[in-house]
Design brief:
- By secondary structure, this protein is of the alpha+beta class.
- Helix content is 54%, strand content 18%.
- The strands form 3 sheets. Strands 2-1-5-4-3 form a 5-stranded antiparallel β-sheet. The chain has a 5-stranded mixed β-sheet with strand order 7-9-10-12-11.
- A hairpin with a 7-residue loop joins strand 11 and strand 12.
- Helix 3 runs parallel beside helix 4, helix 5 runs parallel beside helix 10 and helix 7 runs antiparallel to helix 10.
- It binds adenosine-5'-diphosphate.
């Protein structure tokens, strides 16, 4: 049964079976049609013969066979002619005694009543086709004529046809079967190539591609689709590896700082004030780690689609108010003014806590990167299907080459400065995830007046 698992064998079997059926139907059709036409021909010959003879016998309007010459039977038993008078008496019979066919009074009777009948009969080992027909003179039935012709030729022809069919049928099936295996094998060989190449690509070398030079047919498209899929997997794996490497690196920095503090403190006996200072620094680093781990956890759960968006009516005015309230101490410390710029409220359906986190991240960045005495504006406006919230600051802004990258994970325009501020470059990637999870988007701009502007657009419902 193993071989049946091969597609090429199954395909070939299918079309050999189909061909067998088609050929059988075709042969049967030819046989029946030929048989029909041979019998029609035979009937025509019988009719012609009977007309010839009846023309002879009805010369003077009455039936009289004296002097009628009926050509003899070329081969004995192959044909015969009989003529009957109006009372059904045999007037003439040219059949040889050894092959004399039995009479059929019912057929003669029917002929005398004007009806023609045909039948088959066997006489002396020969199959004959017989017609019994009326002989008319001036529209009156004056007798009957019976003509018989051998069916031997028909039988010969038909059995020859059967013989040819029987000989050619298996040959045709064999040829088509062999050709089928060959053609199916040829058509399917590229699939084997794809399978073989795909088997050699493992998780470790996703950089490899099939790169098969196949035409743009079904198999070619399969191979190209496969390559596309491997490319996407490769990208995803690389991103994952990069993410892990970046995360480890980010975690090492505060740990190294903590270890440094501890070692310095332990080197020798110190004053309580110095211990307190060391602990304060350690505490700061631990806070940074906690924040970093919190962000990593959020992103990991976002990637695993474990965070559910719980939509509820959210007033943007209230949301902005809450966020600004929370940022107020930090802003006050840097003497940065945070102000709302819109008056009309907009209510959208969104996850309140996630939106608050998004806005807090943006405001936190704005305050962080705005120099002392600067301003941060929060504004919102409705659109046809979306609402937009913007946070704009009077800081240094973002250079064009960085604008599209600031949402990437661990991306920092100025790593040293950003780390000094406590950032790991994850805040904006979380913002982007929150916006996209709501079916919205986020963009960064450097508006003409200077500073940076972050705009989040969110669907209203
Ligand atoms: P971080 O936690 O380091 O701030 P983010 O993902 O929030 O990380 O931001 C990525 C980078 O984008 C930051 O390192 C910073 O260089 C830049 N950036 C973010 N917000 C602003 C802003 N308001 N003004 C200038 N640069 C900004």
């Amino acid at each position: 049964m193993g071989i049946l698992r091969l597609l090429r064998v199954r395909l070939t079997l299918w079309y050999v079976a189909l061909l067998a059926l088609t050929l059988a139907a075709f042969s049967a059709g030819v046989y029946v049609a030929l048989r029909e036409s041979l019998y029609t021909n035979l009937d025509d010959s019988i009719e012609t013969r009977s007309e010839l003879v009846s023309a002879l016998v009805t010369a003077d309007g009455d039936i009289d066979v004296t002097g009628v010459e009926i050509p003899g039977d070329p081969v004995e038993g192959e044909e015969f002619v009989r003529v009957f008078d109006a009372s059904g008496e045999v007037l003439l019979d040219n059949s040889a005694a050894a092959f004399r066919p039995p009479e059929d009074p019912a057929a003669v009777e029917a002929a005398l009543h004007g009806e023609t009948t045909r039948r088959g009969l066997a006489a002396g080992g020969v199959d004959l086709r017989v017609m019994t027909a009326p002989v008319r003179a001036d529209g009156r039935v004056v007798g009957a004529i019976e003509v018989g012709l051998s069916e031997g030729d028909i039988h010969d022809t038909l059995s020859r046809l059967l013989l040819i069919i029987a000989a050619l049928y298996p040959v045709a099936l064999l040829v088509v079967g062999g050709g089928g295996v060959f053609l199916a094998g040829r058509a399917l060989r590229p699939i084997d190539e794809v399978t073989l190449a795909a088997r050699q690509i493992s998780a470790e070398d996703l950089g490899r591609r099939l790169d098969l030079a196949l035409p743009n047919d079904e198999v070619g498209r399969l191979a190209r689709t496969f390559d596309g899929m491997i490319a996407r997997l490769d990208e995803a794996f690389q991103r994952q590896r990069q993410f892990t490497a970046d995360a480890s690196h980010e975690l090492r920095t505060p740990l190294t700082a903590i270890k440094g503090q501890a070692e310095v403190a332990l080197q020798r006996e110190r004053a309580p004030e110095e211990y307190r200072e060391a602990l304060r620094r350690v505490n700061e680093e631990v806070d940074r780690m906690i924040r970093l781990l919190g962000s990593l956890l959020t992103l990991a759960r976002a990637d695993a689609a474990q965070i559910e968006i719980e939509r509820e009516p959210v007033s943007l005015e209230r949301l902005a108010g809450d966020a600004m309230e929370q940022l107020r101490p930090a802003a006050a410390e840097k003497r940065v003014t945070v102000t709302p710029l819109s008056s009309a409220d907009i209510v959208i359906r969104a996850d309140h806590d996630l939106l608050l986190q998004l806005l807090l991240n943006l405001l936190d960045n704005a305050v962080k990167y705005t120099p002392e005495g600067g301003t941060v504006e929060v504004s919102w406006r409705p659109g046809a299907e979306r609402a937009e919230i913007s946070v704009r600051d009077t800081g240094p802004g973002i250079a064009p080459e960085h604008l599209t990258h600031v949402f990437d994970r661990f991306y920092r325009v100025d790593a040293a400065r950003s780390r000094a501020e406590g950032g790991a470059g994850l805040g904006l990637s979380i913002c982007r995830w929150i916006a996209e999870a709501h079916g919205g988007a986020i963009r960064a701009e450097s508006p003409p007046g200077g500073g940076a502007r972050f705009t989040v657009s969110l669907p209203l419902a």
